[in-house]
Fold each of these.
Amino acid sequence: MSFQLNKQYYGDYGEAKNGAADISTSGASKQEWPLWEIFIRNKQGLDHKHVGSLHAADAAMAIENARDVYTRRMEGVSIWAVETKFIHASNPDDAAALYDPANDKAYRHPTFYDLPEAVKYM
Amino acid sequence: MEKNLETIFQEKIDAEIRIEPKDWMPEKYRQTLIRQISQHAHSEIVGMLPEGNWITRAPSLRRKAILLAKVQDEAGHGLYLYSAAETLGISRDEMTEQLHTGKAKYSSIFNYPTLSWADMGVIGWLVDGAAIMNQVPLCRSSFGPYARAMVRVCKEESFHQRQGFEILLTLSKGTEAQRQMAQDAIDRWWWPSIMMFGPKDDESPNSILSMKWKIKRFSNDELRQKFIDVIAEQVKVLGFTLPDKDLKWNETRKHYDFGSINWDEFWQVIQGNGPCNKERLDARKKAWADGEWVRDAATAYANKKAKQNKAA
């Protein structure tokens, strides 16, 4: 048998062509709607939390789509939509240097201090 | 240097530290994930078609509302997964194009027709049941966005299986014709459902790499056995049977033995020769083409609004 599929298990059904997935087939994506990052507040008093992203032509559509995609079961009382291109992120490769100033300051944690057992409520 | 990065990467995986999109990863890991996540997303989207077939013909308003909600969930699952795949550097349009050109596949199960209302019950019970069995371990997949999407999917999937079982339970207490309809649906869907777990382990050599990278945590055969053990018991509650004369409890193995699977059929369907392959793809392509003016109009409107805002 000479089918080309070289791999098959759940969620990965192989592909027509042998070898690695080609991620640059692009039929020049003409005008994809912009990508938005969605943040949801689960209930009053909690902070907005990132839940994923979606495509929408504008902010109003992003919020309506977010309602349909991310709050079908009352998961939210408030939605933030931020166009992905406006998000600036730290680079994981810089993590060592970036967080270095905090790395050697254990005295910022309460557990750094040994107090006698007799001291209560502290 | 490259080797060094790969060692660090594997150490993170071994230490159960999740990989995030901006972290360094081997190119093959990225490609495997893009393929797996996008094909998983396509399965959710194409998976709406067999069930969509019955929305207008559901037997009651209650069943219709439930089926609508379920199909809407599948759309949502597809979207969670597409957005997870996009974090790896492939665009939504590229993925859509790969589906439409046949370059990317989707689960072979959705290339079978839904002939009766009982099929809605069996799809929920067996097809979603098999999906859950496969998907729960994916919630701990090593790639963060995929694992998070799967947590969301799994939370919603349980309703799907229960509503399916409830449909069959209702039919099982119905008339003789209703019981026959349900049994017929089980007979048609059983083997394709257990094929959903993929080929036997010794014929799926590349899974080893996926296991090492913890994209996947259990082998096809392990999951299939677990599924069969569960379903063989559940079918008793319904008073129906599974169409496998070799299905029998094995006291030594503490598992059910089962008959041999027709892998020729499986490969035929994967290769595009299933009963509904063409119909499914045509439906997706038509939806994409018919929606083009909507996408264009929304873009034009957004551009106009943006210009007006700038002018004001």
Amino acid sequence: MSYLEVKDLKVHFPIKGGIFGRTVDHIKAVDGVSISLEKGKTYGLVGESGSGKSTTGRAIIGLNNITSGKVIFDGTDITNIKRTKSEATKNIQMIFQDPYSSLNPKKRVVDIISEPLRNFENLTRKEERKRVQELLELVGLSPESILKYPHEFSGGQRQRIGIARAIALKPKLIIADEPVSALDVSVQAQVLNFMKEIQKELDLTYLFISHDLGVIKHMCDDIGIMYKGRYVEEGTAEDIFLNPQHIYTKRLVAAIPDIDPNKREAKRKFREEVKTEYDQSYNDYFDEEGLAYKLQPVSETHLVALPEKG
Amino acid sequence: MENKVKEEKANQPNKSPSGFSIIWRELVRDKLALISLFFLLGIIAFVFGIAFVLDQDEIVKVDLFSIYEPPGEEFVLGTDYGGRDVFGQLIIGTRNSLTIALLVTLLTGIIGVAYGVISGYFGGQIDNIMMRILDFFMILPFTMIVIAFVAIVPKYNTITFSLIMTAFLWMGIARLIRSKALQEKELDYIQASKTLGSSNFKIIFTQLLPNCSSLIIVTMTLNLAANIGLESGLSFLGFGFPESTPSLGTLLSYATNPQTLEYRWWIWVPASIMILLLMLSVNNVGQALKRATDARQRRG
Amino acid sequence: MWKFSVRRTLIMIPQLIVLSILIFVLGQLMPGDALSGQVGPDVDPARLDEIREQMGWNDPWHEQYARWMGGVLQGDLGESFRFKMPVTELIGQRIVNSFWLSVATLILTYIIAIPLGITSGRFNDTWRDQLITGYSYVGFATPLFIFALVMLWLFGFTLGWFPTSGSVTPGLEPGTFEYVMSKLYHLLLPAISMALITTYSTIQYLRNEIVDTKQKDFIITARAKGASETRVYNRHILRNSLLPIAAFLGFEITGLIGGSIFIENIFGYPGMGQLLVESISLRDYTVLTAVTLLFGIASILGALLSDIILSIVDPRIRIK
């Protein structure tokens, strides 16, 4: 049994319309996603914007209601449970995409980071302050800045504050929803490496959501590729990057830029080939509505959404 | 030892200015608003101070020997049709008008903020129903409905009067706070609070409301000005304070007598000026606050 | 478009029902009933109970409500026991007076507000703009009743330019030219007083709208193509800014009702607002409920009208 198990997760949003505002249709943001994640590993969820990757993460932590399916964490079913004061909240935490809006502008750093502590642990003011200072030190910020406001920090520093808040309760699983995409490229690497460090230090498991395959390659052990609410391919990092099977994945992988200038021309040619293949064989890989098929195993670890043969 | 020094140092870190001190700085920079503020504070201190010494029953006592005295040595601002001192009535009237305007502003503020926050934060079906109710209250013509209620309330006094006014005045602020709450709750810091295990109640009080505070302060200040006008208007029509409790509107209502309007300016002109000055200065302060809280409009 | 209108009209039905129940309950709560003012003290109480029973005043409230509503729907608003005539008849003349006063006020408001708003927006941050903004701000902060008193004192009494009460000079034959002119003359001062004070929202709306539109790309494009300044304003800016003003007309009704209560009492103008106040001081509760109901319905219809016009003018409203 794996550490986090998501089974056939569906999140549908109603569309209201008509004279009486009845529900006329649904947007299928997430439509049958299954994930299984081992302890201490990092699982990457990739897709373009609107593919449902963020919604998947938010549904697991309880920010979106789950229409159907199951989420099992460490053997307990946590599907749509009440999160206040629950063990699941303590164990699963989230790092948000936008370090500007994810910190309350009216609060001082000490109040931001101690919010989870106040919910779950009965600490005196002094103990609390000490814990916050330790956490700040852990994420590489000066412990003296606890009375500052968020707007006095840079984007990278803010994201560290967000991380300090997420690890305050010593969680086991962290859902990182595009944690670096709002940051400058130069700061991205810093934050990513830092996340890797604390993963080892605190024995964390990551569900890493991103649209950037470069970042995913750097971080993840296993990868799932989403398109329009469904999986198109899932496998280890090796499976995905060295042996992509689905045409959508192939195109994504081909789009990763290469630093070596000598290979630039070859790379461009390769990209064009893939694009031609994509246009020609689009109908073989997607159904009439342009959605992905069911996943079929191609190897022990590797699943690809292909039409059933025959 | 070393630890202790470190801790002490951390206890007085460089504290950054809070939101309110920024607002205060802006207010001080705005000369007109600052003058208005001092004028208001002066009036309040003066009126409440003097009213403490003055005896309301003495002032409203009818004295048939000094009816319609023009301003002179005995009566600074003359007397009305019952021989009552206009100056005294002006002081007590200002106090009464201000008190009720403040009370109504406070009550509508509490109800409106609570209603707006609940509606906006929870959204969905709750919001839908709550907005339908609000829309209905919004449509009713305020003066008419208050007059109708005042006419039928059996035990009519200051408290019931404020409650009736409150019942039909909470919608404006509720609507503003609701749209603010709708915006704010989509932001990640509210979502983050949820993942950190804070209850909705706690999120509303410790996360959402602090971010609405400047809007609440500005709106309530502007409402205060409007309420001074509404109260004196209702008293003017005879549906506010009873005559034994003079309000600024009561003094003005004597001017519905053409003789008074034409020949006895001392009865109604001072009260008019008082209402105008009060409303203008409260509005000035409110507008300055509004500019101060809106970063785009800040003057410096 | 029609979908929104139908939905919006459907919303109005519960609003009307709630309003009617509210006013009915209000009427029930009023002390005494129509008999208590009419009969002498020597009438036998048992006889009174008999009459009450006959009139159905002891029936359950919902039956009484149904009867009252039935009457209202047929245009029967009950009997005024002070004026001794059907309320419908009593209201008839007053409602016409109030209607013309409102129309005059609206026309004057727009005549004053639209040119000022346009000037203020077109020449924003010049002395002209500051002057206009200053005027509208003072108007916003001045209560209507004080301003109206000053106007009456100045132009009615001191200068004697306008009549100080009534809606027409007594003794004139209805329908004659003199009669119409006299009516117009009587409502001019009240209407001007109200209009001067209520321009604030229109001026500020127009100003902000024009200042906003001025910087939009399509205006800059129009200028770049060489369109004259006048043409830019008439063809592009005003068309976008003036339409919503027409739509706010319905919302104005609520404000006009509030204003007319003050104005009519101050200027002694026999309209609905004056009747409302009179009916309370005379404790004529049938009239009070009738006036309140009519004012309420007018406001609800006004809001409906505005919402529908707005949805035509501004399609974004429809997605609600």
